[in-house]
Amino acid sequence: MTAAIEMVDVLDEPKAIEGRRPFSLAVRRLRKDKVAMVSLVVIVLIVLMAVLAPVFAAVTGHPPNEQYRDIGLTPDGLPRGPNGTFWLGTDDLGRDILVRIAYGARISLLVGVLATAITVVIGVVLGLAAGFLGGITDTVLARLIDVVLSVPFLLVAIALVSVTGPSLTVTVLVIGCFSWASVARIVRGQVLSLREREFVEAARSLGAGDRRIMFVDVLPNVIAPVIVYTTLLIPVVIVTQATLSFLGLGLPPPTPDWGGMISESQNYYTTAWWFILFPGLALLVTTLAFNLFGDGVRDAFDPRADRT
Amino acid sequence: MAMFLIRRIGHGILVLWLISVAVFALFFVAPSNVAQTLAGRQGTPETIALIKHRLGLDLPVWQQYLHFLGNAVKGNLGYDYYHQVPVTHIIGQALPITVSLALGAAVLWLALGVFNGVISATHPRSLADRGLTLFALFFYSFPSFLLGLLLLYFLYFRLTLSGFGWFPAGGYAPLTGGIGPWFQHLLLPWVALALLLAATYTRLTRGSMLDVLGEDYIRTARSKGIRESRVVVVHGLRSALTPVVTQFGIDLGQLIGGVVVIETVFSLPGLGQTAVVAINQQDLPVIIGIVLFASAAVVVSNILVDIGYAVLDPRVRLH
Amino acid sequence: MTDVLLKVDDVRKEFPTHSKEVVQAVAGVSLEVHKGETLGLVGETGCGKSSLARCMAHLYDVTSGSVWFEGQEISKLSRKAMRPLRRDVQVIFQDPYGSLNPRRRVGSIIGDPFAIHNIASGNERKKKVQELMELVGLNPEHYNRFPAEFSGGQRQRIGVARALALRPKLVICDEPVSALDVSIQAQIINLLSDLQREFDLTYVFISHDLSVVRHVSDRIAVMYLGKIVELAPTAELFGQTRHPYTRALLSALPVADPDTADSREQIILGGDIPSATNPPSGCRFHTRCPKARLDCAAEEPVLEPVLDDKPGHRTACFYPLTVGEDLSTAVPDLKAS
């Protein structure tokens, strides 16, 4: 859908067809990648589901946290399977799984985007500073990168969340503050070679200061690898958030999120397959779509780069 | 080489020290109610104060840290709050389980990843290549807990229900009790871990193999009439494996430090699960001990990777 | 001659290497650039002319010596203190591919000087940029394009526009045409000459190609291994060549008339250019000079007027050439007598 609309735009605006424009070649390659385009459509659908979560609640008439202990549970108090009222069944408290999945998408996407954004901003700024300024700045930042990359991330994340208490902010900050190091390392490597380029010297000869050169001249040249890394980072962040939830360190109940739902389903998977299947499927489809799209983005930006 | 090693080890120690400071600061700045928990609900302020004193929690944080550091240098990571067991002992008990898990899975994921990577690289853009890439990405996208739960559902629950009780629901059987039960208990966790990690290796092998197969000496080998399978395996794979070995060292180092989720799902009392339990109990010495041990594993494996890299590829000069 | 715009006084520039040695890129150069002239700087690749150019523009810190612009010493200014002077001293770089940021639009690249020095913004900047583009012969409508969409010659025009944006007094052209096709070279050189006349510019024009330098320069300095070996007004350098190295460079120039080309002397220099980490003793050219004598290896000649030359013509040579001297039969004699 969206791809088709963008194609029309291109035809209307002749400027965008000029082939040698940076990125336009990559975008064209990406458009031809069927797997990536299908993944993009899936991602758009998931975003729509998240945005339209209240519509799900309105159509089914089931608010996400409403417990239907009478019609939503069997006489034995077990979850009910998919039926006309609860299309994807109910959970152990008689809540509508479909509506909760729709609301859960909001959490996954929100954390995925916010934590990735923090990661990328910190990583790019520190990577730029380390690579461009060099000297003592670089030495200190390089050690800091080593430290963060050596820490057992999940353990420390769990420990941190258990100390501060779970919340959306904590989850986002913890993921953001521990993932930036790999971005910083990539950016630093790029900047080390970029700063020897003649256009940096040209900027200096015009009287540009360090900050201007870093952000106006060097930054645009590291955007391609950062874009690739970012698209591949989003699914990793989504999985990390779900993992924290699964371990009981996600969002405080009753907020619906996919990892938490799967965690709650553990005791019921022998009797209520839908309880684990649908949230699990939602999570898997989301990460798979992002990974396939990210894979396409990587191939599009650097067709030769088969290495990680 | 010696200079390089000394510098790398120096950096490693610096990194570990920084981590110890950070972890210590983190947990001691945060409000803790361990003493309260230990004293129980009826604990009087006096009991709580006594417990705090006994655990050394009444000292200023920096004194506690120096005390900890002094002992750590001597190889003593302290004692757990609840049973006064040495932390090194706790790590020693959990480590064989984590190592069994990591090494067994490593065999599987290496075999799977490298095999698929070679097939993909020798048939680029073929159906097999696309299929294998998709297969790898599919499992790479899996959240580990979901894959673990699914394996348990189908291979434990469904099979057992159908009368084939091949796999246990979880838990660990030490090697001392025979290799059979050990193997049986670890097979599902191995498969889960291997499927999750194989994707990286498929991609790495495929990429570097494609590069290597384009090199002149491979063309020379082919033109000499050497069998294609021999060209691929003997001439190609050997030099294509360098990045794989690098990645392997890094992954193994990280796994030795604890496979948190898989251990939790399959109830394996390895380092990861032990750490999670300790975190829930706010058992600080155990948490700090395991975090430091895990970091040390990463640091050491990174140094080994660098050395291995130089051994595998003599062109790499260390400096 | 008239006003001195830029003065270079015994400038040295050394770079450390990995093995604790130093490369002497510039080994004690003194010269003056006069207002309104074009000073050509010529020498083989690696002779240190680009390093000297960067020292002149204070893109490099000098190892020793000093650079003065309009009577003010600039070689020790901090980056910040140098900033206002950047408006007056501009550089055109050699590589029209490397010196333009591939990820930025041409309009914003040319507008950089205005942005950096807070001179104009928004529509005013755009207007000024488009005027500049027109001035250097670019289509102003290509304002929004990226460097990759231009040819090499057009890119160098972009570089010229950027350098001239702030109406500098001195423009240091570091091999501005070396990367271009010969047909394009002439266009850029003509553009530079037109602009010089229009804006009363002073150029330092660097090239390894003596024919290009001859075409544009009022005076020419010949560099060899970090030192100036001969400095003279263009006509004199060609008419009364004093230094054997200059003569060797001249003899390699192509000539239009095949008859004279045959009869012309050919001087082939023996050996490679020596390493700048470990330069030869005495006169640095003595290892390749057809006229070298023992004292050339022992002592360093000073750059000064030789024979009956006027003060404007200076040569660093113990055995300068006389007019008409045949160098092709000369034989070095470095044995102790």
Automatic annotation (TrEMBL), chain A:
Entry's localization field: Cell membrane
Organism annotation: Kribbella sindirgiensis
CDD domains hit by this protein: TM_PBP2
Family the entry assigns: Belongs to the binding-protein-dependent transport system permease family.
GO terms of biological process kind: transmembrane transport
Broad class of the protein's primary localization: membrane
Pfam name, any one: BPD_transp_1
Membrane topology: Multi-pass membrane protein
Name of the protein this chain belongs to: ABC transporter permease
GO cellular component: plasma membrane
Keywords assigned by UniProt, alphabetized: Cell membrane, Membrane, Transmembrane, Transmembrane helix, Transport
TrEMBL record, chain B:
GO cellular component: plasma membrane
Keywords tagged on the record: Cell membrane, Membrane, Transmembrane, Transmembrane helix, Transport
Intracellular or extracellular location(s): Cell membrane
Assigned protein family: Belongs to the binding-protein-dependent transport system permease family.
Source organism, top-level taxon: Bacteria
TM helices/strands, residue ranges: 12-30, 94-119, 131-156, 182-201, 248-266, 286-312
Topology in the lipid bilayer: Multi-pass membrane protein
Annotated ranges, domain ABC transmembrane type-1: 95-305
GO biological process: transmembrane transport
UniProt-recorded name of the protein: ABC transporter permease
TrEMBL record, chain C:
InterPro entries linked: AAA+_ATPase, ABC_transp_ATP-bind, ABC_transporter-like_ATP-bd, ABC_transporter-like_CS, Oligopep_ABC_C, P-loop_NTPase
Record PANTHER family: D,D-DIPEPTIDE TRANSPORT ATP-BINDING PROTEIN DDPF-RELATED (PTHR43776:SF7), TRANSPORT ATP-BINDING PROTEIN (PTHR43776)
Source organism superkingdom: Bacteria
SMART domains assigned: AAA
Keywords: ATP-binding, Nucleotide-binding, Transport
Source species taxonomy: Bacteria, Bacillati, Actinomycetota, Actinomycetes, Propionibacteriales
Keyword 4Fe-4S attributed: no
GO molecular function per UniProt: ATP binding; ATP hydrolysis activity
GO biological process: peptide transport; transmembrane transport
Annotated ABC transporter domain residues: 6-250
Protein name per the record: ATP-binding cassette domain-containing protein
Family: Belongs to the ABC transporter superfamily.
